[in-house]
Structure formats: structure tokens, C-alpha cells
Amino acid sequence: MSQTGPSVLVVDDEEHIRSALGELLDVFGFDVVGMAGDGLQAVSMVERLRPEVVLMDLRMPEMDGLQAARSMLARWPGLGVVILTAYDDPALAQEAGSVGVFAFLTKGCAGQEIRRVLHGAAGRGRNEESGTISLQPVPSREG
Amino acid sequence: MIDEAELIGNPEAEARPEKLKGGLRRRRPAAWVTYLSVALPLLAVYRFLPNQVANSIVYDAVALSCLLAILVGVRIHRPTNRLPWYLLATAVAVWLGGDLVWTYFERVEGIAPFPSIADAMYLSAYPFFASGVYLLVRRHSPKGDRSIVLDAAIITIGVGVLAWMFLMDPYAHDQNLTAMEKIVSMAYPAGDLLVISVLVRVILGSGARSVAFILIGSGLALSIASDSVYGLMLIEGTYYTGHLVDFGWLLFYVLWGTAALHPSMAALARQAPEPRGIATGWRLLLMAAAAILAPVVVLVQPADAYRSHVTGITFASIIMFLLVILRMGGLLGRLESALTTVRRVQREKEKLLDRTMQIAEEERRRIAIDLHDGPVQKLSALAYRFEVGLLQLQDGDQERAVATLTDVRDSFGTEIDALRKVMSGLRPPALDERGLETALRDQLAAFRESSQIHGTFSVGLQGRLPRDVETGLFRVTQEALINVAKHSRARNVRVDLQGDGDWARLTVDDDGVGFDTADLSNRVDGRFGLIAMRQRMEMLGGGFEVRSSPLTGTVVTARFGEPPP
């Protein structure tokens, strides 16, 4: 499939998840530029690959998702960071929002939801100057 | 083969003698029945005998029968400790000797010397008598139970005051008696006091109240009562041979002879299983009665009559008061010790509860992590791959869609297995569906795989145990195996399960480094694990023990119920 969509870095310590998301995003037409197994590796890959969006898990070894997001957004404020985690926890969503994460998704949400949010997150960087996209945590697939 | 003793001791067995013996010959009546059937008629005719010579002959015959019954009883029933019976036989023999000597003086010589060799014999029998009874029933007083000794002393002193006032003091002040006559006259009630102290210990002691025990206690009481009445009659000069008071002694001989021939005599010296209450209502009542005996007598006596006893009563009261204080001190000490134990157990329970809650929380956390890292991740990945398959279908790429969805379907099977493992970790279905034996076998197999320690399982279990017992034994094994894996450095572990539907014994035995059980307090995890196992079994009404020492391995045993003998 031709890659015309936004470039995405997939970050998750579970190989199954990385692989399934990579496949799904590929079908959706995203440009999956890389995959990382932990937060530290993700920060390094963002620097090198400069993706438009990072789709990232929360609980990971070395550096967790929130720490990595904080580090990334401090250096690249226009980066769209989307958290995709197994924890359906409003407190965590709120904390992610305070860090500047674009959206907070729960694993198991519909693929189309991920697609919509990733497009939105990619648009954030493009419209960074106007600031038209607000952060809205998306707690579940219904959300 | 049917044991004779069983037949004798069992009324139902006695009621069906012919069948048990094959119906060919009648069973011989028990020795004690034969003895009673001869001795009781003798007692019945004693009062109606024509003269005092006949009375003396029957009296001595009954005493002799008692002596013979004791010797025969020891031979038939073979008690573990024969010494007390021989001491009693000696006492009876010496009394009989005294009777014969006295009969000779009275009937042949026509004299009534006092004191005489007969008195020496009567008095010398008391130590044999008292020590025999004491040795016979001392095991009915649990070792170290000082309360019985104190209670016996309090009651004996109370009765002793009365004995002094009515049986001893009159002799002490009798101007017509020589010093030797006074001493001998006062020695009889003193000897009886010695026996009373032993009788009180018999009454207060614990242990089974067997037929022999009751016969011996009743005989003692009758003997003391007769001695006391006899003493009073001597002072008043109203006693004569053949008097009703003789029946007390005669019955004493018959009861003791019967006791010696009864099968339950062999178990008399058996250790009491546990002390009875040390401050039961009737026991306190008995002591109170003994303590107020002397003051009550003083109250009902004319003022000048008790004046001469004031010193004696005062001394006795002081000693009794001190003994009561000592007794109360003992009670308070026991109470304090019991309270300390209760507080310690309470603290231990609180710690255990706290630890249990911690463990439960840790367990929840572990399960949450297991679910997060396992099924949730895998199912999320499968959901996305399933969506990929659907998108491939929508795009008309049927070949790839089929491949993707087939892979998803296979992966679901793997995930269901993983979930099943989580479920088994919580509670193995085999425990409910196939019983403890299968669950333990599975548990040991998993243990072998995860720990690399060689495990063997032996079992002799008939039927199913109650569900909570199965769960308890399963958890004990689980905890014991965790300890083996964590601490023992063992190469081999053996799990053994024996029992049937009513009882079970589980052993987990390893050849590891072991530990000093006294050092357990320094090992919080191990200690709580062991306490939890113990409490789990105790809550089921069972027992738990751990035997270990450095370098000897560890044996954990959990018990429920008792195996049939």
C-alpha cells in the first residue's frame, strides 16, 4: 500500500502489540517509520526519524510512556503524542493531559478510533501556530 | 479371639455369653461378681450371728477375703504398677493380724490390754494404707498440679480441727490415762487424718471415674466414717463387737476386694488426660465448708467448752488462711499466665491478619500484572489484527484476509490456554472436580518443572475428604512447597497423603538445609507462612507441626481427624 498518511512511531514493550499496530496502521495508510520497545529508545528514534505522531504505551521498561512524552514534548512541542494503554484510568489520562499528550486511548479501542486520533495528532503539528486542536482524552472505544 | 476383660467390662457382652463362647458351655461369672455373691450374704448375716465369737470369725473371714481378692486381682488383671496393691494388701494383712491378736486376747485370755501389740499392728498399717492409696491414684492428679495438694491440705486441716476437738483432745485431757495410752489413743484419729488427706486427693483428682476407682473411694470414705464413729463411741464407752459400726469396716473390705477383682483396676494408675477445673464450684464449696467447720462448731458449742481449743483453732485457722492465700496466689498466677497467652495469641493473630491482608493485596497486584501483561495485551493485539483482516476483506484481498483471520483464530486458542493457567493459579479446577490427590499430583508436577527439585508423591487416600479440608491441605502443600523452593536448597521433596473420608495426614518432607525452629521469630516470611498453615489446620479442627533442625531437612505434617486405632 502506498504510504501517503502521516508518519508514525509505534512504541510498546509488547512485540505482539507493536506488530499488530504496525500492520493496522499500514493498512490505514500511515507511514510507520519505526518501532521502539521502551521510552528511552523512543526518544532517540524521534530525534533520528522525526515522525509526526508517536503512538505509545504507558507502562514500559527503562522509561515509561509519560516520562518519554514529557521528554519528547519538551524538545518537540509540535509532536503529536498519543498514549495507547491497557489501563483505563481517568487519573492517568489527566496526568497525560497535563504533560501535553494529544490523546489517551485504551487498548482494545476500535482501529478507526486510532486512525481518527492519529490524523488529529498529526494535524496538531501542522496547525501548531493556530493551536486549533485541543487535547481531549479518549478513554474508550465508545469515546 | 475375644478378650475376657472385654467381656467382663462390657454389659452388652455379658448379656450374650453363650453365643460368644460358641454356646457349648456357660461362661464363668466374673471374679468380682463371684466375690460379691459370697461376701454380701456374709455381711447380711453378721448382725444376726448368735454370739461375738461368731462375729469375730465372720469379721476376720471378710478381712481375709479382701486380702485374697487383692492378691488374686493383681494376678488376673496384671496392673502396670503392682506396688500400690501390694502395699494395700500388706495394710489389710496387718489389720487382720491385729484383729486376730485382739480376738485372742479377748476370747482366749479374757483380757483387754491397752495399748497392746494389736494396737501397734493397727497403727503400723496406716502408712502402708495411705501410701498404697496415694500411689494408686496419684496419676489422677496431673503432674505439677499444686492446687490439689493445697486443697487437700485445707480440707484436711478443717477436718483435723474437728478430729482434735472431739477425738483427740478428750484423750489429751483424760487424767486416767498414761502417757502411752494417750499417745496411742490419739494416734488412731491422726492416722485417719492421714487417710483423709489421701481421700481428698482422690476426690479432687481428675481422670476416668472407673468402677474400681469409685469402689476404692467409697471404701475409704466408709472406713474413715466408721473409725470416727468408733472413736466417739470409745470415748463414750458404748462400742461392742458386732455393733452396726462394724458394717462400715466390713463394707470397706468388701468394696476393696471387689475393686481389686474388677477389670477396671488395671487402668487405675493411667495418667489423667488433662486437669479438670482447678476452681470448680463444688471444689470451692468443699474448701469453704472445711474452712468454716471449726468456727461453726465453736458457735454451737457452749462458751466454756471451746475455750480450751482456742489455741488449736487459732493455729489451724492461721495455717488454713495462709494456705488459702497460697491457693489464691496460684489461681491468680494461672490467670495471669492465661491472660499473657491470650494476649500473645491475639497479637499473633493481628499480625497474621495484617500479613494476610498484605499477601492478599500482593496477590491482587500480581494477578492484575499477569492480566495486563498477558491476556489484555495479547487480546488487544488480536483485536487489531482482526481489524486488519476485516480491512483486507473490504479491500477485496481475500487471500491475505483469510491468512490473517486464520492466524487470529489460532492465537485465540493460545490466549484461552493462557487465561486457563491464570485461573488454575487462583484455584485448580482439579481440586473441585477430581479431588485432592489429583490436585496435589498436578501441583507437584508443576513444582518439579519450575524448581528443578525432584519430587515424589505417595498416596493412600480412600474416598473424598470434606471440601474445606481438601482446600486446607492443598494450600498447606502449596505453602510448604514454596518454602522448599525458596529456602531449603533441597534436592528431593516427598509429599505423602494418607487417609479416608474422616481423617487425613499430609507430610511434606525435604532433604534440604533445614533450620532451627527456635530461630523462626527472626524470619518473618517463614514464620507467618508456618503460622498461617497452623491456623488454617486448627480452624479445620486439625493439627499442624513442623520438625526441622540445621542440616537435617524439614518435615511439615498436617493432620485432620484421627486414624482408626
- Give start-end ranges of low-pLDDT stretches of chain B: 1-25
What distance lies between the first and last C-alpha atoms of chain A, to the nearest angstrom? 29 Å
End-to-end span of chain B in angstroms? 17 Å
Secondary-structure-derived class of chain A: alpha/beta
Helix content of chain B: over 70%
Oligomer: heterodimer
Q: Helicity range of the residues of chain A?
A: 40-55%
Largest interface, by Cβ-Cβ below 8 angstroms: which chains and how many residues each? A-B, 17 and 17 residues
> What does the radius of gyration of chain B come to?
38 Å
Query: Main beta sheet of chain A: strand number and arrangement?
Result: 5 strands, parallel
Give the strand order of the largest sheet of chain B, numbering strands 1, 2, ... along the chain.
1-2-3-5-4
Strand order of the largest sheet of chain A: 2-1-3-4-5
Itemize the secondary structure elements and their pairings.
The complex is a heterodimer of chains A (143) and B (565).
Chain A lengths: L6 E5 L3 H14 L2 E6 L2 H11 L3 E4 L8 H11 L4 E6 L4 H10 L3 E4 L4 H16 L17
Parallel strand pairs in A: 1-2, 1-3, 3-4, 4-5
Helix pairs in contact in A: 2-3
Chain B lengths: L3 H6 L1 H4 L2 H4 L10 H16 L5 H26 L5 H27 L7 H21 L8 H27 L6 H26 L6 H26 L9 H16 L19 H20 L2 H5 L2 H85 L3 H29 L2 H5 L2 H16 L2 E8 L5 H22 L3 E8 L4 E7 L13 H16 L3 E6 L5 E7 L5
Parallel strand pairs in B: 1-2
Antiparallel strand pairs in B: 2-3, 3-5, 4-5
Structure description:
- The complex is a heterodimer of chains A (143) and B (565).
- Chain A is of the alpha/beta class and 143 residues long.
- Chain A has five helices and five strands.
- A five-stranded parallel β-sheet of chain A has the order 2-1-3-4-5, sandwiched between helices.
- In chain A, helix 2 (39-49) runs parallel beside helix 3.
- Chain A is globular.
- Residues 128-143 of chain A have low confidence and may be disordered.
- Chain B is α+β, with helices and mostly antiparallel strands.
- Chain B contains 19 helices and five strands.
- Chain B has helices at 4-9, 11-14, 17-20, 31-46, 52-77, 83-109, 117-137, 146-172, 179-204, 211-236, 246-261, 281-300, 303-307, 310-394, 398-426, 429-433, 436-451, 467-488, 524-539; strands at 454-461, 492-499, 504-510, 543-548, 554-560.
- In chain B, helix 7 (117-137) runs parallel beside helix 9 (179-204).
- Chain B is elongated, with a radius of gyration of 38 Å.
- Mean pLDDT of chain B is 82; it is low at 1-25.
- Classes of the chains: A alpha/beta (143), B alpha+beta (565).
- The A-B interface holds A 14, 16-17, 19-21, 23-24, 27-28, 59, 86-87, 107-108, 110-111 and B 372-373, 376-385, 387-388, 391-392, 395.
